[in-house]
Amino acid sequence: MKEVKELKGESSVSIRKGKKLMSYDYAYKLDFECNLKDGEGKTVGSITGTYDIPEMSNATGDDDDWEANV
Predict the structure, then answer these.
(1) What contacts 43, CB < 8 A, 6 or more positions away?
(2) Domain count, the chain
């Protein structure tokens, strides 16, 4: 990851009936760069882009349910 372009959201922790309850809701965009190397370790190319998660929250369920745009 090269740079955090945008990070918005909120999180909270509360205790109810003796149990810790955590909640979160975030949206973020990250710039990335990846160098491609051959079997000898020589850089043969690179890829750049943006990784965008428009909504990440405990209400959306498992990690597999989050929408990601690359």
Answers:
(1) 35, 36, 37
(2) 1
Residue 23 structural domain: 3-65
pLDDT in the model for residue 64: 64
Helices (H), ranges, 1-70: none
Mean pLDDT by 10 residues, the chain (70 residues): 94 94 93 94 95 86 76
Name the nearest CA neighbour of 23 among 11, 41, 37, 35. 11
Q: Which residues have C-beta within 8 Å of that of residue 37, sequence separation ≥ 6?
A: 43, 44
Q: How many beta carbons lie within 10 A of that of residue 60, not counting itself?
A: 13
Q: Given this model, what pLDDT does residue 45 score?
A: 95
Residue 13: inside a domain, yes or no? Answer: yes
